[in-house]
Amino acid sequence: MRWSKTLLCTLREDPKDAEIVSHKLMMRAGLLVKLEGGLYSYSPLGVRVLHKVEKIVREEMDRAGASEVLFTALQPISLWEESGRAGLMGKSMFRLKDRNENTMVLGPTHEEVATDYLRTLASSYRQLPATIYQIQTKFRDEIRPRFGLMRCKEFVMKDAYSFDIDSDGADESYRKMYDAYLRIFARCGLDAHPVEADTGAIGGNHSHEFMVLAPSGEDGILHCPSCHYAANQERAERKAPPCDWSSPSAAPRAKVATPGAHTVDEAAAALGIASDQVVKSLVYVADGKPVMVLMRGNADLCEPKLRRVLGAAELEMADPETTAKVAGPFGSIGPIGASIPVFADNALREARDMAVGAGEDGYHVAHCNLMDDPDVKIEAWHDLASVVAGDLCPRCGAPLALERGIEVGHVFKLGTKYTKAMGFTVLASNSQPVTPIMGCYGIGVSRTVQAIAEQNNDADGIVWPASVSPYQVALLSLDSKSESCAGAVAQLEEALENAGIDVLVDDRDERPGIKFKDADLIGCTVRVTVGAKSLAKGGAEVRLRKTGETELVPVSQVCEKVKALLAAN
Ligand code: ATP
Ligand code: MG
User: Fold this and answer.
1) Whole-prediction pTM value?
2) How large is the average pLDDT for residues 471-477?
């Protein structure tokens, strides 16, 4: 491909709204063009990377025994009503009406459609196991679209669905996809780690996310350097921190004035106790209903854990008015005599001699025993705490480390959640109907493209691994007006293309400095430079983008040299 024939534009400046390095570089290298927040067009360069990642995904899905299908993005809401998820998706699902006033949705994911597809086709256990996949555009009305391709309203996903008649088979299908994911990300030049994950609105009971470690990542990952436990912060567990409940004061419950004490630390100081002896009481509104949550004073609530235990689609902290109405003023909320359901963190089990808000401004209640206080009614105990660096590993007790990551893929064991809700059965060998067990497996294909750029760049631009480089070679023609130079460039272009190597020829009428800068910014794996100078010295300059290593190679040997570099990078 000749640069002069394609509308490729690089930018000198970072776009104002680009916060992370990959977003800046993808825009500056002219891979993406912004339509508006969360909506990006791919340029001829960008779409090539996307297609290369898609090709790797396809090859590995096929190799793992999955069959490619293509569903419609437009879906009837009735399918979501059948599965019971119509409400659960909340505002993140785009809804629209057709001309007959039927409500349709733009698919944010396709568990329902996949289940419907299988129930239309499969009636016997002999047709299972089956794993199907598609690569398709998904739509999500994200609260905060940002970071370019990382969080879009419209993005490309590979989604796969497995159907098995027994749980051993379902485990095997899950393992095949898990292994395929490891191969896909490795082939994309990504260092991606599987971690235990929250199952969110998709449901099911077991899932792993594939995380690309990067300081800009939106997810926190706790991992244990000792036993290699690794989990998303949304789901990570911890060994309950030690707490001395052994010598509680025998003093009876007492209301104490704590004027001006609104935070846990202020209350602890006013009462002369440690902050983990104060109960932090929070009021949330879950799908319109207020609930109270109790945490130890020094722990933070992990909202995704609360959302999961409540099964809520929408969850937010109650505003001061609602809080005051149902639980007392901010800073003095407490569970004694609460009129709303109270949920407590496991770390408060057995808690003795605690201080809680009195439900009245300027007062706390000291010496409260949550477990056996007749005026405290705990609806349920759950693990609700946000795990942080230094908390103890739930498996081996070593201190956990916290890193940030970008979620590029997610695999779930779904069980029979969808097949049961949607009445999909097949006849087993004994002629009895059985409900197939499902798994679902997503890869954010477009997010993966940008994650590769996030992990592979330097001060000059992107450094694409050969497998996904928009063109494997950037061929720079420095003296296009000289016949010998133009001839050598044409000869090299043909030789490389004949060898199956894709080439972007920079034949613009621009200064060499600009061509070098743009080549570095776009980041094709190998750069080949031909100019009057290099030819006079005996050939073309072949340079590896990653290391900058450069070699002068006779024109007739460039192809072999490039092949060797591409194979090794
Ligand atoms: P996240 O936690 O980042 O919102 P998710 O858990 O909602 O992601 P899944 O439903 O598991 O995502 O979707 C499968 C994959 O699709 C994710 O692993 C991610 O790589 C990608 N993905 C999800 N939402 C977006 C988005 N808004 N823009 C781009 N890619 C996305
Ligand atoms: Mg997720």
Assistant:
1) 0.87
2) 98
